[in-house]
Specification:
The protein has about 250 residues and is of the alpha/beta class. The protein folds into two domains: about 100 residues, Rossmann fold (3-Layer(aba) Sandwich); about 80 residues, Orthogonal Bundle (Helicase, Ruva Protein, domain 3), CATH 1.10.8. The protein contains twelve helices and seven strands. A three-stranded parallel sheet has the order 1-4-7. Strands 2-3 form a two-stranded antiparallel sheet. A two-stranded antiparallel sheet has the order 5-6. Helix 9 packs across helix 10. It is globular, with a radius of gyration of 22 Å. The termini are far apart.
Length: about 250
Amino acid sequence: MVDLPLGATEDRVCGTIDIEKALSEGVKAFEPGLLAKANRGILYVDEVNLLDDHLVDVLLDSAASGWNTVEREGISIRHPAKFILIGSGNPEEGELRPQLLDRFGMHAEIRTVKDPNLRVEIVEQRSSFDQNPGEFLSKYQHEQDDMQQKLVEAQERLKSVILDRDLRVKISQVCAELDVDGLRGDLVTNRAAKALTALECRTEVTVDDIRRVMTLCLRHRLRKDPLESIDSGYKVAKVFDRVFGLETNS
């Protein structure tokens, strides 16, 4: 996993070319940036909604093409930059550009914990980590190893997971009724449902699998009406229930 800090320069992200070395030695002296290091891995951006526009453009280009191109003084270098983009941020501090928001397959809304006992537990765990990070990490290493193995097995099982055409049609019907632009919502929902099925050691996607991932896949893709008071997650769930025949008469 590679961290992309807010104050990063474009050279730090994309990489640089040593022109002097290129001219004197006749070689393309390239210093890789964060995009090169994140290739085939995870690129994490904290406060992603506060990123400078020029860095957003760089991420959009790389996410769309899977390649990063660095050009300077007539010299051009191109390298693969395929990564899983993970970002966090507080929407009250600024909106994320729609083009970049669309590149996130899933969107989770995280709210502050209200249960006092759970809040105390979180504070205690944080204090424990601060006092002795090594000991804290070793305490949970076994759980981490188990999860890693579970993910590896799920990746193998994914090839055998079946999603019936009838369910795929209903997924696309929900996306159409919600007026989701493009087909990325359909694609991501299909992939997420299959991934969840594989993670839970099954090979056939169920309606419940789709229900559990659909709001995550579509909430951020709905067109926003400033006068709309209904939560977008509720809108997704309501259309899902109608299309999949789960509506109740009460």
